[in-house]
């Protein structure tokens, strides 16, 4: 079985030592987050996988499910400089990126000075991102893909690492705009946040209504996080797993010979979906204490990687079908 290697891959002993150290750090992160976020293990896992993979995540769920709290907690635990933007219908692109202001010196000479907006942070929390207009949502596009912004022809680099964790309310709710497809594709994962289990909700009631609340501690810093991100990119991926990623992503596109997809899917995932799957599969393997991803990682990540990169035909929606149903069918086929 062939193995894909990166140019700067470490030797096996170094990889094992680095992975064990990273695993210990990840365990500390999980422990700190669990002091504040009760239950929701898959939500915490997928959000962390997106960050460990160096990408952005979109958390979707009704208000009041601790999406914002999870993002602020992760910022504190990972030791990242964080900013929060509350998206509203009247928010302007300059409220995110920053703007030029006129300065005048003591000689009366005037010049423009750029005042940085909240996007200049290592962790940007975009709260209720779909409450802003598409024009404002699109202001994040360049920063999410290219890690810099251009204002009045001048380039300004963003801090490293740079992650956007956005929260979104379900589209059926009042005052929401759908995110543009190009922006959805910039999110590595979509994380669906559901209502908590009974035991977790009981714990929420008991832990959060007293006089004092537990505060999470920083267990990492930005430099260490970037080391783990580099390690994840160096993990080997077998040809079998690469083929499984390609088969799954391509089977979700119309016109590729999959009858169910041709019938139900209007447009499918592009190459970014495969890139996201490759990175997140490595991160998930490390998260679970393994040195290489397996087919199980691909099947587990199918929904969070593909869901926001696909749209159903009108006929499929009229029949009450969801994108999740289609992905579940594709995974079932892949498992044989």
Give me the count of strands.
13
Radius of gyration: 21 Å
User: What is the overall silhouette?
Assistant: globular
Q: What is the subunit organization of this protein?
A: single chain
Tell me, rounded to a whole number, the average pLDDT: 85
CATH class of the largest domain: Alpha Beta
Query: How many domains in all?
Result: 2
Largest sheet: 5 strands, parallel
CATH architecture term of the largest domain:
3-Layer(aba) Sandwich
Portion of residues in helices?
Answer: 40-55%
The CATH superfamily of the largest domain turns out to be P-loop containing nucleotide triphosphate hydrolases
Q: Please indicate the percent range of residues in DSSP E strands (runs of 2 or more).
A: 15-25%
Topology-level CATH name of the largest domain: Rossmann fold
């Amino acid at each position: 079985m062939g193995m894909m290697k990166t140019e700067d891959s470490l030797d096996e002993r170094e990889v094992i030592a680095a992975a064990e150290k990273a695993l210990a750090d990840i365990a500390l992160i999980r422990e700190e987050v669990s002091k504040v976020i009760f239950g929701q293990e898959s939500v915490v896992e997928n959000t962390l996988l997106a960050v460990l993979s160096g990408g952005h995540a979109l958390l979707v769920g009704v208000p009041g499910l601790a999406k914002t709290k999870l993002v602020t907690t992760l910022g504190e635990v990972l030791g990242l400089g964080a900013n929060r933007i509350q998206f509203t219908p009247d928010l302007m692109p300059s409220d995110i990126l920053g703007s030029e202001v006129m300065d005048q010196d003591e000689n009366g000479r005037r010049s423009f000075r750029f005042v940085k907006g909240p996007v200049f942070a290592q962790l940007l929390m975009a709260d209720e991102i779909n409450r802003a207009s598409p024009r404002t949502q699109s202001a994040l596009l360049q920063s999410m893909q290219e890690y810099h912004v251009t204002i009045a022809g001048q380039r300004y680099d963003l801090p490293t690492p740079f992650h956007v964790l956005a929260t979104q309310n379900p589209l059926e709710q009042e005052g929401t705009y759908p995110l543009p497809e190009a922006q959805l594709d910039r999110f590595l994962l979509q994380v669906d946040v559901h209502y908590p289990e009974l035991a977790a909700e009981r714990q929420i009631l008991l832990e959060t209504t007293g006089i004092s609340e537990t505060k999470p501690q920083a267990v990492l810093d930005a430099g260490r996080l970037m080391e783990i991100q580099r390690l994840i990119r160096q993990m080997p991926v077998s040809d079998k797993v690469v083929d499984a990623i390609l088969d799954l992503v391509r089977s979700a596109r119309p016109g590729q010979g999959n009858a169910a997809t041709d019938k139900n899917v209007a447009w499918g995932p592009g190459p970014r979906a495969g890139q996201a799957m490759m990175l997140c599969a490595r991160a998930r393997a490390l998260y679970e204490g393994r040195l290489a991803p397996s087919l199980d990682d691909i099947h587990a990540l199918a929904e969070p990687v593909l869901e926001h990169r696909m749209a159903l035909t009108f006929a499929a929606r009229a029949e009450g079908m969801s994108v999740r149903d289609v992905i579940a069918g594709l995974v079932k086929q892949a498992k044989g």
